[in-house]
Amino acid sequence: MSSSQGISVQEMVRVARQLSEDRFEFTLFPAAQRGSGPQMVEMTQQGKLDIFLGGAGYFASLDSRINVFDIPYLFANVTQAYHVMDSDFGREMLDVLDRHALKGLSFWENGIRSFTNNVKPVYHPDDLKGLKIRTMPGNQVHERLWQAAGLETMPLPSGEIYAAIQDGKINSQEHPISVIYARKFYEVQRYLSLTRHLYGPLIQVINRDRFNAMASEEQDIIMKASLAGAVATRQFSNENEAAFLDEMKQAGLEVNEVDPRAFREAMRPAIERDFIAQNGDLWLNKINAMLRKPLPEEG
Q1: Is residue 298 predicted with pLDDT exceeding 60?
Q2: Cα–Cα dist 289/79, whole Å
């Protein structure tokens, strides 16, 4: 539980117990103990789990508009992502899960994803071709993204990535820096290329019927505690990224910067077209309109 998610879940529990005067009790199941992401989404819908935290892509099978987060280079930095997710529109996105027996609580930090592999440093999109990468199970957009870039894909639960690299089933993966560090992928990967191609949030949900059965005061506590956990993930990720990179370099990982423009031009158009063809452009237009305005931090 020393990862960003683990530490932040503990913060959520602390806040919930403090606000409820210890009326809330939690049993935690880290490291995919209860199954894969798609399995745990279904278990939460069925009430076999109360709360689940996982990548936004795990919810795309319920409402494909959530795949908006799989459009490469949608956000230039985490500040832009926070601005959208913390807005009324962010709440609107979470609320689409209500019709699927889930209550969206909050967006947590997963971070901006970069690319690791064992074959060569990646400086240009052409360098990706021929590599074999793990993709998120049940997320066809994630698979389409990497196949369009010329990679062979293999859907795998996140808990199986390390062993799959060791066994040679895949030679590449992509995650935020904090996740690459926490899961020790640098032990089995040689190169980290800072492509920063996707901002992938986590979504925390609770079984809708369980939430609706709570008293309003209890609902408020759960919402506040979830937000506290979300804030903690952001702080952990942003405050520690430089130290994580330095430690991984010292362990032998070769790290290189890339020019994001070539990757954006190569990776974004096809995925954006596919998204609009399936979902329309309303969500994408709302996000782009928000990002065209000066952010609050920028005055």
Answers
A1: no
A2: 15
